[in-house]
């Protein structure tokens, strides 16, 4: 296989794009793809200030590095969940710190245990749906932080594999609430920062290659609470289909983004109140975050 | 496992319904299910005259037997495609003839070779997309026949497995044309008979059990032209998901039937003309059927 651009030895073959690239031209191709995604969904104006939610995994590190190289004013936020088991939080934090130091990206660590004298493990004892609670916690902190620093948007490392698997799950259940909000950009609203997913059209294989090419050192520890069996199954199935029909995943998800209006209801949204503790919009006051973490 | 009704030994376990039944009560359950489907989608008024498209397979034989037992005036139509290889058409025809004789259901055989001096194999030489052409041929004949005898509807044996796999395929491609028409009932229009799929909410396992219970002898020969690899893969995947989450397939397809309006366009349909040969509506005159089979 030869590089599509320079005809040199190929570093990666991308059947979905019917192309192969050497490492240099793959790098350029990858950046061009993200640039197009950002433009297509109006994610960021040039040189915008953006907060990247870092987890220490390859997807969020890639998001931060790409946005930084595309000239955005990137800062990173890591939420230390205080999960000691398997050194999960410690190792993740270290991966983020090393990455940010190397690429001179300012990093803020929000340490749950330092803020509230307890981490996820203490909460896990009381709540059966710990992944949902942890997700809520991270979303709250990231949203609040992004609003506080006045950044244009909060970027997360969700990939095409994540987006297409969620889409599949939501279609299987006809979950209209989530089907209405599956775009890779969620606009800012009063009390909600704009959220963007710059890797939404990039597959695992490309991201893995980019991370390898740039010597990224993502954390290898896995969250001891993680149990996403269903989601992993959906991902595996779509990847199996992708094998036989390269480009299927992207056509599925990108096609959906053109059709998302079909899932939006004309009806009014449920009313929101303002949380008396944090001042952010919520379904009830105090909001779940303040109730759980601030004992409000 | 005990029968949900009589507590006798269970003949079948249906995890999707969280139930098990002895053979007698499974039979009653199965008929009740079809009755509900017919009612839910307004398929047939009581005692209506219905043409069942028989192929010789277990699904179409089951459809004919169930509708007959539910008191409809059933007649069957078999299209002999003239596929000699592996005795496919011969064996299928024989299975239909035996079934109809045993259950006193009037059978009409439409023999392509008798009508047009050639069958599918002769056509197959000229056309690469033979499955599409064969489908068009069967649909044309069945529609014309149903209109001619003035039946209320044409029933086909499509199952939940067929419907959910088609739905999945159409969603993967966001094929809006087919997503708009995926209901188990298509209303009659000028030149188009009403089409119904009474087994649309029944899974393979139930249908297989019903066929076994009633000693149906479906044809075992497989069409030598069949190559539905993709469709089979989708079916297998959904069945794998169903294993882990009983009822998933039905929730997926039934959920879609509640949401189908989202895929219907407000725009006008493309204009239709009347075929000068057969007098039925078509995209152009002569219609594809008359062009191919009647050399029009």
UniProtKB/TrEMBL annotation, chains A, B:
The keyword Transcription regulation does not apply. SUPFAM superfamilies: Adenine nucleotide alpha hydrolases-like. InterPro entries: Rossmann-like_a/b/a_fold, TilS/TtcA_N, tRNA_thiolation_TtcA_Ctu1, TtuA-like_LIM_N. Keywords: ATP-binding, Hydrolase, Isopeptide bond, Metal-binding, Nucleotide-binding, Transferase, Ubl conjugation, Zinc. Residues 49-220 form the tRNA(Ile)-lysidine/2-thiocytidine synthase N-terminal domain. Zn(2+) 1 binds at residues 3, 6, 22, 25. Zn(2+) 2 binds at residues 275, 278, 287, 290. One of its GO terms (biological process) is tRNA wobble position uridine thiolation. ATP binds at residues 53-55, 59, 79, 157, 162. GO terms for cellular component: cytosolic tRNA wobble base thiouridylase complex. It comes from the Bacteria. It holds the Pfam family ATP_bind_3. This is Adenine nucleotide alpha hydrolase family protein.
């Amino acid at each position: 296989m030869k590089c599509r651009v320079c005809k040199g030895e190929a570093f990666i073959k991308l059947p979905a794009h019917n192309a192969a690239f050497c490492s240099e031209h793959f790098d350029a191709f990858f950046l061009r793809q993200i640039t197009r995604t950002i433009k297509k969904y109006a994610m960021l104006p040039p040189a915008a200030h953006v907060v990247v939610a870092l987890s220490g995994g390859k997807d969020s590190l890639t998001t931060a590095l790409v946005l930084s190289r595309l000239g955005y004013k990137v800062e990173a936020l890591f939420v230390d969940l205080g999960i000691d088991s398997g050194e999960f939080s410690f190792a993740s934090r270290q991966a983020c710190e090393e990455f940010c130091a190397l690429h001179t990206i300012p990093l803020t660590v929000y340490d749950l245990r330092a803020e509230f004298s307890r981490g996820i493990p203490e909460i896990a004892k009381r709540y059966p749906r710990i992944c949902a609670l942890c997700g809520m916690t991270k979303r709250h902190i990231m949203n609040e932080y992004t609003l506080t620093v006045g950044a244009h948007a909060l970027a997360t490392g969700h990939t095409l594999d994540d987006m297409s698997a969620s889409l599949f799950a939501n279609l299987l259940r006809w979950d209209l609430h989530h089907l209405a909000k599956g775009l890779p950009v969620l606009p800012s609203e009063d009390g909600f920062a704009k959220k963007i997913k710059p890797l939404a059209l990039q597959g695992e294989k490309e991201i893995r290659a980019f991370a390898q090419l740039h010597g990224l050192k993502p954390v290898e520890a896995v969250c001891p609470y993680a149990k996403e069996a269903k989601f992993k199954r959906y991902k595996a199935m779509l990847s199996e289909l992708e094998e036989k029909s390269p480009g299927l995943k992207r056509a599925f998800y990108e096609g959906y983004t053109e059709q998302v209006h079909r899932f939006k209801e004309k009806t009014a949204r449920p009313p929101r109140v303002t949380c008396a503790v944090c001042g952010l919009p919520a379904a009830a006051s105090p909001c779940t975050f303040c109730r759980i973490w601030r004992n409000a």
